[in-house]
Amino acid sequence: MKIRLIFSLCLLFFTLFAVSAEVVKQENEPKWWEKRRQRADIFFPHNAHQEIMKNRGDVCMACHPFSGTKLTDLKMLSKLETLSNEPLEAICHECHVAERSAPIACEYCHPDTHAIRPEDHSFDYKTIHGEAAIKDQAACRLCHLDLSFCTDCHFRRNTPHRVNHPLGYRDRHGLEARMDPATCGSCHNAGYCRECHRGGNP
Amino acid sequence: MRSLFFFILIFISIGVAAAEIKLPPLHHPVGVKLAQGMEPPEAFVLGRQSELICDTCHGVSDLEKIPLEEVDSSVEDFLLQGPYDSLTTFCYLCHEKQGMERFNVHLMFDQGGRLDEQRCLYCHQESPEPEQVTDRSQLKFRLPLENLCLGCHLKTPHLNTLAHQVEPSEEIREAMKKAEEKHQIILPLDSRKRVTCVTCHTPHEQGVIDSDRAGGKQVADHPVNEGIGYRDDPWGGVYLEDKKVRLAGLQQTLDKTIELPAYRRIEKEILLRLPAKDGSLCQACHQFQE
């Protein structure tokens, strides 16, 4: 009799422990806004957008909709809320890309531009970009909004103008090249480096 | 021997219970005969003895054989000839709307413009005199504040309610206090100090409480009986398209069909302590550095 009682109590404690562990796990799960703060790829200055969003209809609810729902499954609803609150590229890009009524520099909203760089823009892409650009110029212009991005190189002829690097950069490029060689590689191939760094020259 | 008999009895009881069709809570009675004079649409088939059966209202074949947990209520024909904009639209196909419709307790004045004090008693044990109220305890609510709205409204009637029904941080409480002073309003929390429906919504129609009192301040640019005014937005289609892939992923993970609520803009607001359209209501709590 005693053994049965002990067994029942153990079972009860085990069940309670399992249930409470699940509750704690759910409570500790980060909320959608906490997840958003962890993101390095998007920056949205709320205050700076307040006036313009007011003129366009809604200040907050344009991106954080409060639409009615009959969903009562809280787990499902929580996931749906996360989804509905995710930044909507089309809303941002209507002003920043299509209309250009807002600043068009990518890095204003995407501080880590590597995060939004297309996968094919890998090492030495500059030398092989021609084919893709001819095929779908519009795709390039989704990010490269300013035509000077193309013309600076293609029509530069023999002017001393440097597009990406300031004057005298050649003398002090070493540190950056060691820190982030992939960035150099997105325009220059390995041969470009070897032209000067022959025979192990620093 | 006695234990064996006991276990057999338990198994038989479980078997009998399992054989009965399990219905969700608040389900319409099944097996009842149609009331005299009631004329459901032709497509709504009745049982052999003119009683209500599953197929009377549902278009899902062999619904009674599907376990309750596996029934997908989001399919179009779940309610016959659906989907419907609201459940009551479906109910009124058989039941007369006039006389059956639940009245709106937020409409607190009668046709002569007098306050109907019976309406106050839906939430208060006694009808309060707004001018004499100095403390919330004088309001004598029938239920804790967080439960007052439930029954007529869902606990999560719109998106982003779930994330709001929490105890605000010290920083947000500070912002709320400042907003209360700035706008001369109240932003009440529930009995456990959590944000609840009445934190943002006022239940009283304009004029029930004087608008110079904090509890009486509200957005009142639209009659309560007309409800909230929405308008479609060109971004609606973009919104649905943008979320489509992620929604499909979510549906696959949860193994359920989930409908993303339509993306619409609020045009006319009612029963809010501050306007939400211009962000004032949200900014009563949420402040940003940049």
Measured as a percent range, the helix fraction of chain A is: 40-55%
The secondary-structure class of chain A comes to mainly alpha
> Based on helices, strands and strand pairing, what is the structural class of chain B?
mainly alpha
Which descriptor suits the 3D outline of chain A? flat
**The biggest beta sheet of chain B, please?**
2 strands, antiparallel
Number of helices in the DSSP assignment of chain B? 9
Order of helices and strands of chain B: HHHHHHHEEHEEH
Number of strands of chain B: 4
Low-confidence stretches of chain B: 13-19
Main sheet makeup of chain A: none
List the secondary-structure elements of chain A in sequence, H or E.
HHHHHHHHHHHH
> How many DSSP-defined strands of chain A?
0
In percent, how much strand structure appears in the residues of chain B?
under 5%
Radius of gyration over C-alpha positions of chain B, nearest whole angstrom: 24 Å
Summarize the model shown.
The complex is a heterodimer of chains A (about 200) and B (about 290). Chain A has about 200 residues and is mainly α.
Characteristics of this structure?
heterodimer, A: 202 residues, mainly alpha, 3 domains, B: 290 residues, two-stranded antiparallel ribbon, 5% strand, globular
How would you describe what is shown here?
- The complex is a heterodimer of chains A (202) and B (290).
- Chain A folds into 3 domains: 1-30; 39-113, no CATH class; 120-200, no CATH class.
- Helices cover 53% and strands 0% of the residues of chain A.
- Chain A has helices at 2-28, 32-37, 46-55, 74-85, 89-99, 106-109, 125-135, 137-140, 148-154, 174-179, 181-185, 190-194.
- The longest helix of chain A has 27 residues, at 2-28.
- Chain B folds into 3 domains: 2-100, no CATH class; 117-227 and 269-283, no CATH class; 229-267, no CATH class.
- Helix content of chain B is 27%, strand content 5%.
- Chain B is built from 9 helices and 4 strands; from the N terminus they run αααααααββαββα.
- In chain B, the strands form 2 sheets. A two-stranded antiparallel ribbon of chain B has the order 1-4. Chain B has a two-stranded antiparallel sheet with strand order 2-3.
- The longest helix of chain B has 20 residues, at 235-254.
- Chain B is globular, with a radius of gyration of 24 Å.
- The A-B interface holds A 31-33, 45-48, 50, 53-54, 57-62, 64-81, 83-86, 88-91, 94 and B 154-160, 162-163, 233, 235, 238-239, 242-243, 246-247, 250, 254, 256, 258-266, 276-279, 282-283, 286, 288-290.
